[in-house]
Structures
1.
Amino acid sequence: YQRGWTPPNTEQAVVAGGQPDYKECYFAAPMPLDPLCRRWFPEVYIGNVWPNDAEAFQSGLMGIGRQLHLLGLALLRAAERALDVPAGSITGKAEGGAHVSRILKYLPLDQPAIDKGNFQVGGRCSVLWGEEHTDFNVLTLLPGGAFYRDGKGGERPDDAGGLYLRTHATAEHPNGQLLRGTPPKGCVVAQVGQQLEVLSGGRFLATPHVITAPTEPGWTRTSLAHFVHLNGRERVEPLPEYRAQAGDAYAPPVLAGNYAMKTLVDIGLAPPETLGRLGYRHYDRLARMRGEQV
């Protein structure tokens, strides 16, 4: 899962009520994979898949992914300092993780589809290209997106289209505010993932975000994202310095590899039978013994 091309109408957010996102994407792992995790979690730790005669595409995606990963590690080191925990408390747990980069293309919509939009953003009602959600990894790096129509790039057609991030709740805005997620030139957007929220005992909160379509038909949007993950053998639980503060809010702990497999089932990127690998798988032995006894 999360390798090669994912066709449209596949991925869906947990809160989407069964509505797939209007997008297609291509996944690749730019960093070396933990050999033991490749045995334990083969669905998550798998080799890359590439089209034929696509050397430039492969080298470009892998190179960008590696550079974004280095930036992500630098930000996690800053998070360690902000949390006042020993160096390596987070970055060490991410070593050998199932880090993945993906290119996304959000699909053009016709006017009847746009007319069904009911998500209020930018002073307009918009269709959701990608349902609002939080990422299940540690940290997500987003260098920005671009809009196209009829094969030509252009400025964002209106304030309804693009990436929006939801801020923390405040007394004045108990549901947070939606802010445009367009980074300044030469910068990236960094989003906190669920795993970093858990590690920090809620000191950092996972960033809700949504991708909305313009209100003009025919536009597409392309973007790239890199996802930093915990190593599959690490436990997703608050760091020792934050366990008392967190209480049972993030209990019980779970292996990051199992966490990933469960989430991929939830969002439609893995089949439900994947969950059968998360528990005991040898009940057939007793069944066979009882059958032979009869």
2.
Amino acid sequence: RVLSSKVGRRMFLFFVLSALTPILFLAVLYFTSVTNLLRDQAYAQLDSMAKSYRTTLYERLLLVDELLRSSTAGLDTANARGMAPLRAQILSRLGALSPGERTFRSLNLELPSGQSMSVIGQGVAVYPLSPDALIHLGKGEPVLLFRPAAEGAARILVVRALDPRTPEQGVMTAEVNPSFLWGDRQDMPYNTMFCVLSAGSYQPLYCPAPQQAGSIREAIAASTALSKIQFVWRSGDDDYLASFGEIFLRAKFSESGWLVAASQDEDVALGPVKTFNELFVGALALSLLIALLL
């Protein structure tokens, strides 16, 4: 009989709204907070993976430099009778360095006279070097260079002077084995893609797919500052969450730096968010039904 009158129906509607409004308000607030928290956790996980990969890359570059330094220290190019004895001496030193074989794709001895000798593989010539590079080599430090490749990863080169006191008298150049430097994709975190770009030119150095490298490069270049480490990029109909950071190489390697981005498909990265959405809708419907019955 209460609902048969106009006043009764208004009172019942007011009661229902009074009961449901706080529940809906708290539900929306809780849903927004948890969704943002899960998204932040996804970005934090990507940031952690990118940071770990940056550390791994830098340690591998240091190992390459140490092997190169050990193989070239004290070479007497002035009194050597031709290039062959020098090559034999270098190979003898590398024989005592167990990681050397898997670390170098090629090793090249180059003199300013134009003489060049491939110690391992097909060596890469780097002369002429810039004045800044020669100054850095003269400090006893290595120089890091790269050569873009039409397909696949760029060629990463580490250069050391045969004698730091006279860096213009000759250099040894190691091309780093890509599988050693970038690692095996099967050993990387599940469904995570790493992409490495030069901080100076945004030139892709390593990225599994060229079209993805282009999308990541455009997203990073469009950032107002390199301190912005989180962004979303698109490939076809798929969105990817990404986080990136910089490896600072200037002091050690006289290189502008590398930008390392870790990306995951949004459906994978935000999988917990979708699971929460499904549970939340069911719980909300049940809560509203109970409120109405009471």
